[in-house]
Amino acid sequence: MSAFKAYKACVPIAWSPNLYITLVRGIPGTRRLHRRTLEALRLGKCNRTVMRWNTPTVRGMLQQVKRLVVIETEEMFKARKEKEAKHRAIRPPLVVSHLPPSAASDSSQQAA
């Protein structure tokens, strides 16, 4: 699975004033120019996300390191965060009764 598919959200891509940039590939083994670009973008570790304005300067920097990063619009970022929050939400406990079906109904009638 590619890095982009791992972070792709289920919303249409639209123009956004802010870009959310996530470093998904490691820095070791990259060119010095690419390391300096990532440093300028404040991306020091993998799976870190920063928000930058959508300007030609930033887009040029991202063009240099496009194989190392995933770029999301504001809507894509929010949709991904909501999806992750829903996945991590606390679910109600699963109640398992080990009694036979007839005994379980009898015990509930006796309690009433």
Rg value: 24 Å
The proportion of strand residues reads 5-15%
| Element pattern in H and E | HEHEHEHH
DSSP E strands, number: 3
How would you write the strand order of the largest sheet?
A: 2-1-3
Q: Which structural class do you get from the secondary structure elements?
A: alpha+beta
Mean pLDDT: 77
Query: Which segments are poorly predicted (pLDDT under 50) over 5 or more consecutive residues?
Result: none
Query: Which range best describes the helical content: under 10%, 10-25%, 25-40%, 40-55%, 55-70% or over 70%?
Result: 40-55%
What's the CATH topology label?
Ribosomal Protein L30, Chain: A
Give the name of the CATH superfamily: Ribosomal protein L30/L7
Total helical segments? 5
Shape: elongated
Number of domains: 1
Quick take:
The chain has 112 residues and is an alpha+beta fold. Helix content is 44%, strand content 14%.
